[in-house]
Amino acid sequence: MPIPPSTPSMSPSRIGLWFIGARGGVAATATVGLVALQKKLAGTTGLVTDLPPFSRLNLADWADFVIGGHEIRAGTLLDAVDRLRSDSRVLDAALVDECRAELAAIDRNIRPGSLANSGATIAGLAGDSMRGVAAERPTETIGRLQRDLRAFREEAGLNRVIVVNVASTEPAHEYRELPHGWETLRGYLESDQANWLPASSLYAIAALDLGMPYINFTPSLGSNATAIDELAHLRGTCHAGRDGKTGETLLKSVLAPMFAARNLEVMSWVGHNIFGNLDGQVLDDPVNKAAKVKSKDALLGKILGYDPQTLVTIEYIRSLGDWKTAWDHIHFRGFLGTPMTLQFTWQGCDSLLAAPLVLDLVRLVELSARRGERGLLVHLGSFFKQPLGMEEHDFSRQLLRLRAWADEAAG
Ligand SMILES: NC(=O)c1ccc[n+]([C@@H]2O[C@H](COP(=O)([O-])OP(=O)(O)OC[C@H]3O[C@@H](n4cnc5c(N)ncnc54)[C@H](O)[C@@H]3O)[C@@H](O)[C@H]2O)c1
User: Fold this and answer.
1) What is the pLDDT of residue 8?
2) How far is the CA of 340 from the centre of ligand 1 (A)?
């Protein structure tokens, strides 16, 4: 049953934040970050919603959020956080120690997820708890995921639950005769004609069918289907995606408009990415990597209006852990055709760049849900590499759209 919307002016007192991939790098960092904000151990640098005009909105307080999630790997959330701290030196040891009790409590809200059509590399990560659900049909999986979501909502006394997909990138899926209408897709699911749908889409259907907003921070298919969008409309809820724009692609969406505006012709754009976290390990499989490369490469032609030669590589270098280096080489020419070069090196900590965006998205989506917005939240396009429902890829123009929404929401 969808949750009745609360009044936009009222900030609901308890909101569930349900991570798919709850013990992964992004989820673990966002969880530590949220607990640190709740305990006033951290500042708000990196959080877009702490800036005007968003800070003027009636956004939920950090204290309002309760975390749970689905996961496929064994181990605890504390293990994941400790690995980020010790292997990658992402998190401060004293900060982690201050949050241990809360992290242990959150771990008790994490349930076995689904591996449906996730490919061999992701299946290879799975813990023993996934054995019992391996033979499920799609409708059985959706039913089980919904029982977990409902139990979380009821046991924690939540007004609303927002589901965020931060699970590993699935192999690139192509649509196969996916119907446009939700009722037909439901029939397909019941008759097993849609048994190729990946887990990311089953999670999206499970959430949206319960009236819970769904955010896809990954390149996986998720809610990117007309029939699933219709489900969101029918249940009076909303969704957003796809693939968080945190580093190299963010720079592309800032720099490419400059070349276009100065009538400089980009002849080629090469981007080499190296990093060594679990995401990198999964992306080392060519079928998973294909989904990510497509996501990082698609925007240039759309911004420039022509397609320069491009190359995107992603290589797993274990010693780098969560620290990603992107080296981009942009070959361009201007007046009288003389070639010139721009190169940049981006050295970012992947999880620390992603975590605040996830928290911002959750707050913004929560307000949209409270305002009764339905379907795709197009104004959130600046957060994503493949902004669903938005053709605009220029970062500054995407931000104008977000600010216009904020002005309207502020009344
Ligand atoms: N800067 C960033 O870190 C960034 C930016 C944009 C997008 N993303 C995307 O966000 C996702 C998470 O990134 P990460 O660095 O946290 O990766 P990660 O590998 O550390 O975490 C992914 C987690 O998802 C779990 N998982 C895999 N399949 C699952 C399933 N079907 N159901 C439930 N859990 C599942 C894994 O066990 C793991 O714990 C990836 O898809 C990544 O491409 C990350």
Assistant:
1) 52
2) 37
Of 279, 314, 349, 353, the residue with max ligand 1 atoms within 8 A of its CB, to mutate for a pocket test, comes to: 279
Q: Residue 203 half-sphere exposure, CB side, CA atoms within 13 Å?
A: 32
The residue among 313, 310, 290, 293 whose CA lies nearest residue 301 is 310
In short, whether 273's Cβ falls inside 6 Å of ligand 1 is: no
Structure confidence at residue 411 (pLDDT) = 84
Q: What is d(CA 224, CA 376) in angstroms, rounded to the nearest whole number?
A: 9
Mean pLDDT in the chain?
93
pLDDT digits (tens, 9 = 90+) for 77-106: 999 999 999 988 889 999 999 999 999 999
Please return the burial class of 337, using the count of CB atoms within 10 Å of its CB with bins 0-12, 13-18 and 19+: exposed
Report which residue type is found at 103: L
Question: Is the CB of residue 108 less than 8 Å from the CB of residue 155?
Answer: no
Whether 208 is in the pocket of ligand 1, judged by its Cβ within 6 Å, is: no
- What is the DSSP-derived secondary structure letter of residue 198? -
213 in the Ramachandran plot: left (φ > 0), alpha (ψ -120 to 50) or beta?
beta
| Model confidence at 109: pLDDT above 70 | yes
**279 alpha carbon – ligand 1 mean position (Å):** 6
My answer on whether omega of the bond before 23 falls inside 30° of 0, hence cis, is no
Residue where the block lists tokens 């992306």: 283
| Contacts for 280 with CB less than 8 Å, ≥ 6 apart | 314, 315, 316, 317, 320, 324
Sign of the dihedral through C-alpha 135, 137, 138, 144? negative
Residues 33, 19 contacting (CB under 8 angstroms): no
d(CA 16, CA 366) in angstroms, rounded, equals: 10
Q: Which residue has the tokens 């999880």?
A: 351
Q: Mapping DSSP to helix (H, G, I), strand (E, B) and coil, where does residue 142 land?
A: helix
